[in-house]
Amino acid sequence: MTTYREYFRYSDFEEVWKTLSEIYKEPEEARPLYEAVHQSVCEMEEDKSKSTEKIAAFISANGDLKISGAPDPQEWLAGREVVIDYDPDDKKGHNVNELVGGLLYWSTLYGIKTRKMQKEGFSKWLDYGMRGPFYTIPDNDFDKIGEGVMVKYIFLDFDGVLNTEQYHSQLAIEGKPTKDEFGPLFDPKAVARLGEIVEATKAEIYVISSWGEVLGADKIVEMWEKRELPGKVPDVYIPDDKCCSKAQWIKKCINDMMFLPYIILDDEAIFLPEQEDHVIKINPVTGISKENAEQSIAILNELDNLPVSAFEDKAYEEERERIYRINKESSNRKKLRFWRETVVNDEAYDWSWNLTILRKKLEYNIGYYRFTQRYDGWKKDVERMALACRLMKIAVGEDSIYEKDTYVNIRNCSRFEVKAAEFEEDSKFIELHRDELRENKAFQLVWTILRQNMKYWWD
After folding, report:
1. Pairing of strands 65-67, 55-59
2. Which residues does residue 3 pair with via DSSP β-bridges, in sequence order?
3. pTM above 0.70, yes or no
């Protein structure tokens, strides 16, 4: 027994590529993609749960590899036995490199990649799309997407930023209270500077003060309202096992988003290297100064007037577009081969070929859904498609039970265009027409399944 993966390990990609380029006419620019898949299959571990089926391959005299059904993902194929049947008229035979070239071509109908590559590519695309900048949507009106305000963050410490040494010295000299129910009072000048920043940038305030651990998030929000402080506070840093420092919490909040304007207002500068350009070190004696406010506004607003193109990674987008084009063109060529034999063998007078064409379409979709796995419930849809294909084979007589010990219920045969009396009177008639009854039943069941499910299968 030789498995799919073993054939790949026995092959030489240089020779495999000759088959792909000369027989299947794949262009040179597709070569690196095929080589990556070839290497991945050679290194792939077998999935025992997906290795029970065999791959029945037939290589015709013109060099085409023919396999019934639709291809499964590479990860499902690795451990399967490949059973080869050569055209008896093909005198020259085929070596392992030609065989692997055919297998690789057939198994990449939906994209020149493995499931792992597909998943990694999708994750990279999501990360790319989640880099920011982000915008609020006015009044949750989704028709106004793009008209909102750019999301910006102020990571704000209290002590030495709003709670200043200068202000408390002044209160002490004047004999005024220095605290309220929440703690030390904030310097009105520093609060006013914070208000200028918020007004000019519309930034949200994320508290990184030790006050959060003492008071708790709810109390901080209550203090913000009672003291009539500027802006909104969506979240408060409270140390825990996952984030034991301000710097770690800030990194978690921004989630490595490339275009997220933010500043850190603190009287200390103990942050991560990638955060240093966003830190505005405050003098703890005076708190936020005019210069601090101007610098904060400049940093937070520096992306406001940039065009959309400024946030694009042109190299990434061009490479993604190039790979998409190669896969699309290759897939179009493969679809023609996938359908060619089915279309060529069609006959206008053969009713059963209508089911053959429909089964071919379902097989194509089964392979596609197994490869992309793009939505919840795809497994159930594939199971129903596979059942419909199985019933179609029975309905057109491709799965005969003649001389097989297969049970067929004859008691309801009248519902399927066969008279029960004929079965009861003649046992030989039963043997002759049991297949016919089974085919008629399958034919009706196919349409029941399609009627109940088909509109939900086309994602």
Report:
1. antiparallel
2. 81
3. yes
